[in-house]
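User: Predict the complex.
Assistant: Input components as received:
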Amino acid sequence: MIGPPVIEALQMALVLLAAPGLVGIVRAVKARLQRREGPPLVQPYRQILRLLAKEVVLAENASWLFRTAPYLILALTWAASSVVPTFSTGLAFAPLGDLIVITALLGAARFLLALAGLDIGTSFGGIGASREAMFASLAEPAMLMIVVTLAIAAGSTQLSTIAAFMLSPAAGLRFSFALALVALVIVALAENGRIPIDNPATHLELTMVHEAMVLEYSGRHLAMIELAAALKLLLTISIIACIFFPFGLGLPGFAGFLVGLLSYAMKLGIAAILLGVFEVSIAKMRVFRVPELLGAGLMLGLLGTLLLYVSRGL
Amino acid sequence: MGLGFDIAHMLAGLMVLASFLLLYQDRLPALINVLRLHGFILALAVAWQAYIQSAPHLYIAAVIALAVKALVIPGALDRIVDRLGIHREVETVGGIGPTMLAGMALVALSLRVMLPITAHADPVSRQDIALALSVVLIGLLIMVTRRNAVGQVAGFLSLENGIDLAAAGARGMPLVVELSVAFSVLIAFIVIGIFLFRIRERFDTVDLAALESFRGERQ
Amino acid sequence: MIVALLAGTALLLVLALAGAVARGQGPRLYAAAAIVTALSAVLALASLASAPATLTLPLGLPWLGWHFRLDPLSAFFLFVVDLGAASASLFAIGYGRHEEEPGRVLPFFPLFLAALQLVVLADDAFSFLFSWELMSLASWALVLVHHRDRESIRAGYVYLLMAVLSGFALLLCFGLLAGGAGAYGFAAMRLAHPAPGLAALALLLALLGTGAKAGLVPVHAWLPLAHPAAPSHVSALMSGVMTKVAVYAFLRIAFDLLPVPPGWIGLIVLALGGITAVLGVLYALMQHDLKRLLAYHTVENIGIIFIGIGLAMVFRAAAGEEAAAALALTASLFHVFNHSVFKSLLFFGAGSVDVATGTRDMERQGGLIHRMPRTGFFFLIGCAAISALPPLNGFVSEWLTFQAILLGPGLPEWGPKILIPVDGALLALAAALAAACFVKAFGVTFLGRPRSAAASAAEEADRFSLGAMGVLAALCCLAGIFPAVVINALAPTARTLVGAAMPTQSFFHAFVPWGAIIPVAAARSSYDGFAIFLLLVAVTGLAIGAARRLAAHAVRRAPAWDCGFPDPRPETQYTATSFAEPIRRVFGPAVFGAASAVRMPAPGSLSPARIRSALRDRLWEIFYAPVAGVVERLATSADRLQFLTIRRYLFFVFAALVALLLALALTQ
Amino acid sequence: MIPLAAVLAVPLAAALLLALIADYRLSARINIAASLLAFAGSLSFLFHRPAPGALFLIDDLNVVFIVLNTFVGFTTSLFSAGYIGHELESGKLTAGYLRFYHAMFQVMLFGMNLALVAANIGLMWVAVELATLSTVMMVGIYRTHAAIEAAWKYFILGSVGIALALFGTILVYLAAHPVIGSGAAGMLWTVLLAHAKDFDPALLDTAFVFLLLGYGTKVGLVPMHAWLPDAHAEGPTPISAVLSGLLLNVALYALLRFKILLAACPGAIAPGPLMIALGLVSTLLAALMLYRRRDIKRLFAYSSIEQMGIIVFAFGMAGPLGNLAGLLQMTMHSLTKSAIFFSVGHVAQVKGTQRIAEMGGLTESHPLLGWTLVAGVVAIAGLPPFGIFTSEFLIVSSSFSHAPLLAALLVLGLLVAFGALLLRLGGLAFGPVRGAVGPVRASSAPIFAHLALVLLAGLWLPPPLVAWFRHAASLLG
């Protein structure tokens, strides 16, 4: 009764709308834990609207790349999120790409963002871009190793298939998956520039990575960037949820659809709370400790792959 | 035939002996004298071969040997020595004793190589060849153990005598005369060469060590 | 068909002669070369699926002759060659005008093109090696065009030496295959069944020979020296095309001439490919000479291609894995095509920048996107493509390679089970680092503020150069958006090599209403470049439209914010070196033995702080320096023989004589 | 008999005539004319040959050598005409020496031709000695310290070699004697070959040892090679060309003849291994020696040793392919190396020195010389499109299948040698211009003639030529 196109449209709208809210929840949780009043949950939405209303202050030597990048970044992130089964597996765009494609789309967004950081020719833009490049050069392989682990286990890189496999008894409980989960969490933190890799709240110059790249943005451009960042956070959480906690996915009928929606909302909420708790309970790392962490992530991914052979005679 | 064989054998043996004498000499004048003797014995040997092979053209070869090898060239060498005033010792490489031992070894080697294989060649040429080979080898040995040009020429000359002996010993070998002539030309050139160096006043001595000093490649 | 192609080659040879005699006819010659090669590219494309055609010319050895053969494999590579050649010639029509000594380029450029074509068409060992060496020779002459600077002379030296090494390796390989009787025809070699050990040795020799030409680590050292030294259109040919010809040679020998080799050789190729990919990109990150950076990226991409080939060999050796082998092979062939396209594009861009700013040093450039917008745009597309970003072509081939890697664990043996995922990690690492490297390449060269007067006065490239770049950029996009077309075109080639091909990718697939490519099964994995492209366009349009409708339109130009302390001096920007610094700190100590020392001035002193960092080329130290040292030492000791006395020389003769006589005496 | 007269009598007569003529221009022309006549005569051998006689024998094997010999002799005389005039002007030679030079040139050609057509091993020996002596004269002609020294070294080593060769010849006769009996018949190729199967193999072995070392000295095989580099470097360049292009071949020819003889005698040792060993040693050592050379002519002299090593290796490997490749390589080397020496001669005259350090950037200052030098080195390195590529292709590929290790060693030598030559070429032909940049007045026709032939051979070998080579190769067993 609800065809894939409808679900697809619903999901794309949903993720875009839910993303700032998710950020709001995380901030609220952190504020509470820090005994602060903290901003209201809708603050991110207001922020974006306010930015849209403001004029754009453009650096003199900004090129067309600098001006188009925000839209492309948002588009890439959004397109990636359109492939991830959030509350239902029956997505029209599912065949567009698999987990690797999603990673690549996010990589493309990062590529553009780094270039935008370099475009103005300020030292902060450079610092952000070069550090982002270093993080990415380790985070992406780690991500792909996780993909390999899952692909070997599930015999597929298609998220819907993986989710279905994870639901089936064939999956069982495997040590490899635990490793993969840890690695994926590390990657997710790096991708979204969360503590301990980066601090989204800071404007203390020398610790900035993501913020340093977008330092020159303002007005609607900045709005796009912010939205894309929020969307990315939601997207990574959805991926983790879809792979490791696919409960309530792919159930038949309208009831199943509703169950999917509810469980998804629940997952997002839990993830937001966990993230908030995690961020207040840990300190940010020195930049050059990060590669070690990400390297550990990569190794975990690879280890997970190799351990699969032990756990199941492939 | 028996006698003929023995005499040929004796003469060849004498040449080997003379070669050893050459090896032993360490003064140029004496060296040249022994060389003279060497050439003289060669002439005799060739003549004898001519007689027992009844090959008249060998007599010519013998005469040439006598003329060139026993008289002309040693004389020339004498003159060089006089002109250059190098009656002093020949610097030999690695004393006389070891050299003599090496010579012995060479004779043994040449016998070992030759005697078995020429089994069905006729005995005269057979032993001739064997001894000639040892003369040749000793000649080479002399060349590599003498630092002085004259000494080396002497060595080369004895080497060549050995070859002449072989040629004469090879029964009925044609062109022997021509070959020995050609060879004498070679020797003549060598001697002339030494003269040239002397006359052009480029080297105050024909000591090759001095001649080696320059290399075109040296900076 | 083949006759027409060879006629084209002959025309190129005529052009070479013309180039030797004609003065100031550069543009005309290049135009002619462009037309000829474009035509033969079309012919090659047309004969991709046609049955093998052969031709024999009475050249070379009379009893052998020169054999030519056009089968799907050679047709594909001929297309790659001619595409690169045509675009390079087109580019050179404009670019060549800036050459100060065209007389050193014009004779050898067409000769080089002809040799490239002949290698691909050759069908016997003699004509193959003849063309192979001719190819090296012509490109050597082109490397030496700027012969006054010592660097290019050294580059030429190392280059030709390695080229001759590779030639000898192949010669020995063919010697084995031909046997004592000298059956040099490839046809005979196909029929001959050499003993397994022999075949393995031949294959390893082939790997050495072709690897040394393709730039496989550790026999890659010549590549980053030679490719930048040549004029840029030649660099593009050497990087984009000549290395592919080496790949062709390996495929020809390993998949066509030899019987199916054992799997362990495939694993060796696989391992070499992974190492090459990662080391190549790491070295590239450390460069700030734009063309050298690109050259090192050629090494990386060759590594990726050989990963695919290695996978294909492993699958081929295993029973019943033809489909997987076909997938791996198709992936690497696809990447061959892609790399030839975007590497040529990037070298053209680098050449235009070189001409415009008079330097290849990125540290003296910047902000060129304002002065040369079109070049910048095309170069950006090239960067995105080589960084494997969807929806461009580079991503598709690497995605396919990954799909092949994901099939590896299904193999029974443990070797591939372990090694293939590790190679996957290496491939992923290489891809990610490549993206970082091209952020640097584009960002430092085209973005930011000019770092030199020349850069701020740069002029946009001429229309021919732009045309060449535009064509290639368009190809990058098309091949990425419609990968199904390319994959289907590659099917015959794959079938001739591994006896199977990927499932035909119908443009409107039955399963999904889009152009998804499905390597194995829809449930396993699929990628739909066209739909993603459409989606991106739609979503971007949506975002922009929304911004237009909802947001304020006001735009104010102002000085950069830069946290309130903007500094007008361009020196304050990040340089190429500083951009790569974090990665250098991560990988440097292990790979380059990097050492860096920071000297901070005393507190209060106004003298600048200095950082001094040094890299060492470990590979050179391990593989090349020792060999050179040994030869040097031997040469020095042998040289004493030149300065002995006559007596000593006589002694050698004497010793030789006695030794031989002794030997005789003992043997009798 | 006319052709024979052309090949032998003409040079001899010309030598006598030239000894009388003072005007060097005239004598240079006569020199050319005589060489041309000899070449024409040798060409006629291709169509009909005089019946083998007691003194002269012409068969498929030595026809190859004679034609090559007379042709290179002719081109060299052309080159020398332009070259020697400059020597006179630059005062390095006087008119008197020029007269001597031209006479000796013809004597040399006569000696070599005689050695090639001789049917009698004794006669051949005499001829080789004659050729040697005449070249010794030529090497020393500049009367400089270095020249006389080089000549002396060449002379002494050569004489010892000659002596050993003669001893070997005598031994061969001795081996033949029991079968053939006394008399001149015992020294005739044809007769010897016919009865070789009955000879005492052990005696032949010993003979071959002496012949290999004796004639090997002339071929320039290590360890008897010491004379070669200096002789090439210190003599007039035409002589260097003749030495590399011709004399080495003549000695090699003698060696090959005796190899055939041994091959025909069942019990005798296979000469192959010996030749292979000497060839490899020569190639490897010469390759190493190339690195430290500072004198351009010495450089290419050592490359000749290397090439001779390859050729001897090929003949040692034997087999139809090996021998064919050997003959081809020998021909190509003669043409290429003499061409190289021609252009090197011009270069040295322009620069006024032979020191490599004092010449550079030739492709810029003298494009013609520079590029011909590049082409020559590329050709000698066995790269296409030149003929040596073909022969090296055959040698390596055919030997690797049944003697992998040896072939690998040979390849190693080739690589090392190429490294050295390429290193020098980089400085000579490219890079900044060094040394004088005066114009070249002598003609480059001989260079182009040779290179064109080598290029043609690389692209297309006329089938009759190959058939003829193959027959010669089959003679070599």
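Residues 198-219 of chain B have pLDDT under 50 and may be disordered.
Let me know if you want any component modeled separately.
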